[in-house]
Every structure is written in C-alpha cells, then in structure tokens.
Hints:
The protein contains six helices and 19 strands. The protein has 351 residues and is an alpha/beta fold.
Amino acid sequence: MRTPGPARPTTAPSTDPAPPSATAPPVPVPAPDSPAPEGQPSEAVWDVVVVGGGAAGLAGALMLARSRRRVLVLDAGDPRNAPADAVHALLALDGTPPLELLARGRADVERYGGVVRPARVSEARADGDLFRVTAADGVVVRARRLLLATGLVDELPELPGLREGWGSDVVHCPFCHGWEVRDRAIAVLGTTPMAVHQALMFRQLSDRVRLLTWELALGEEDLARLVARGVEIVPGTPVGVERADGALKGVRMADGSLVEAGALTVQTRMHPRAEPFGPLGLELAENAMGTALAAGPTGATSVPGVWVAGNLADVSAQVGAAAAQGALAGGHINGDLVMADADLAVAAAAA
C-alpha cells in the first residue's frame, strides 16, 4: 500500500501522535552491549543505524537483529500512511491499521535485541570510516553502516477542502484504496499526465468515473481510450471540494456547477524526506511521480556504507514492497559487514 506526512504547506497533515518535541528531555539511547568484532575500535559504535521506523526500516532492522547485529532504529513517528484506516494488499495482514502494523514490527525487532527509539534525525554524515547521526534533541550516535528509510511526503494540489478527506475518500492509489471506493461515482483530478492512467485504473473498479481535465491537455490517443472505456470528460477548473455531514459531495467548478462524487482521486507530487542526508552527498532520481534517492537493486547507494529502502528509494512501493526492499537491504548490509569483520580479523591476526 502506498497510502498517505511534515514538510510542505500543501501536504496532508499526519494524524499520528507527534514525535517528542525539542523541549522534551532526550530519550536515552543505550550503547551497544555486545562486544565489538575483533579489530574494531572499542568505543561504542552501532553496526547499523536505521533512520526511519516504517515497514522498510523495521524489516531491514529485523534482518539485521536476527543476524546478531547491533542495530538501532531512530523513528520520527510520522508514517506516511497514518491517515489511512488500514493497510491493504499486504498478504495475511490485509486490513491491519497502519499504527498497529508498526507496533508489531517494533516488537519483532526488539525481540531479537534490536533497539527502537523515537527520534527525529536532523543530520547524517560521514565520520572517518564511520557515520555520525545527530537527532533533533542533540543525541549523537555513530554507526558502521546506515540504512535510510524515512519515506516521502505527498504534496497535494492547491484546492480548498481537498486535504480534509485525504486517506479516506480522497485517494491516489487504486491498489491501496480502490476496493474501498468500488462502484462509487469517482472524480479524477487532472493535475498531471498520470491522471489518464489513474482514470483508466479506477475504471476497473467503477463504471462511474469522470476525469476533470483542469490543467490537463488530452492527446487523441488518450482521449480515445477514455471515451472507449466510458470515462466522462469534464472540462473546466475545480475551485473547491465540498462535503456534507462529513461525507464527500463532489467538486465545485469555476462555472458554479457541482460534479458529484463519492470518491476523489488525485496525483500527488512525491518528495523524499531526505533533508537530513544532504551531507552524505547522495544522488537523486526523478520520475513522473516524484523524486527518490538513487540506489541499486539491493538498496546500495553510490556512497559506500549507505543503503536506502522503501519510498525513499521507490516512490511507487506499497507496504509489502517497502518491507521487502528493507529486508533485502538488511541482508546485504549484514553480508557487507561479514566481509568487513573477516578483513578486520585477518589484519588483527597479522599484527
């Protein structure tokens, strides 16, 4: 599921409990209590610090903890999908509330000795052969490797009343929410060329789909497909989303007409939560849906020792895919550390 987080005024607000404020006393972060590998500096250094405690970060941390790695997860506590009622299309866990899923994930990590702490990371940078991670409350930790999994922020179009229904009857992903809005009158906001694809996807779920062209210029091929599938084209400019008794009524147009709808779909612009990682010099990757951090198939970035997973690396990843990416990255990080530990042991034996 790719459901709905902090950065931009057009972003849907999170309903998740706020992370600790800057004035709250810092949450203590314990030092790793297992011995350092032979040849490694003796001061307290985590094998891996995971930044972000969503599906991707926790799955990566679980793989590492089960490999007896000293792993610390720092989580800001504002998951992208907090406004949604449930996670969908996740095998065996379909319908689980997002915050319940994360609570269960944290318990899994902690059962194997991993440590999960609430903290909003303000900076991560290289520190010699290690990495230094600084939290907003001033706590500093060091790690041999980093797994970054802070996700993304959905930027919504500027339209009065839109964000109030975000994650319920204002949606963006047919796989995340499509079943829940099936057979309703669905209005698609034409803010980007992806609106055509979105309209056709939701047409699979309802025979009452309207595309509000708004800023969109339709080509002949797109128009032919939409018409052939029975998608109604509504020209004009939306000026607001209207609700009655908490339920969506429709979209008010500039000419005064109301396009009635029981669900509204929108293409968000997706921005990575990557500001703290600027000092690392990571590369960005752009696509039609938004921006992510560039990484290879295992999550490895161009910066040695740094991996990324989940929506930070793949804007289209639903919860299941994000968790799989995190697990894959965690496995490869452990493999990387296994070889590094072997090399340290060889050097120590030769000294």
